[in-house]
Design goal:
Helix content is 64%, strand content 0%. By secondary structure, it is mainly alpha-helical. The two termini are 46 Å apart.
Length: 84
């Protein structure tokens, strides 16, 4: 699945704040948005499950493709046996 990060929890910082974060080892400059904690948790969980669902869909499609390929191979074997 595409790597899409959810950054709604943290406030967007300016260039100078970004430079200051390079030497902010204690994390004092990390400001969160004023969204309620329950909302951010809900959004994060929903985003996680969306990614899991996408991974399941990819797995299902890959499995279908493998099964289809194996059926084609088996059918070709059967045809070769019947013509021999």
């Amino acid at each position: 699945m595409a790597n899409k990060k959810n950054i709604y929890l943290f406030a967007k910082s300016s260039f100078l704040e970004g430079v200051a974060r390079l030497i902010d080892f204690s994390g004092t400059l990390d400001d969160c948005n004023s969204i309620a904690l329950e909302q951010t948790d809900g959004k994060a969980i929903a985003a996680d499950w969306k990614v899991v669902g996408g991974d399941f869909n990819l797995t299902i499609e890959d499995t279908k493709s493998l099964m289809r390929d194996s059926l084609v191979i088996e059918a070709r074997k059967q045809l070769n046996r019947s013509t021999d």
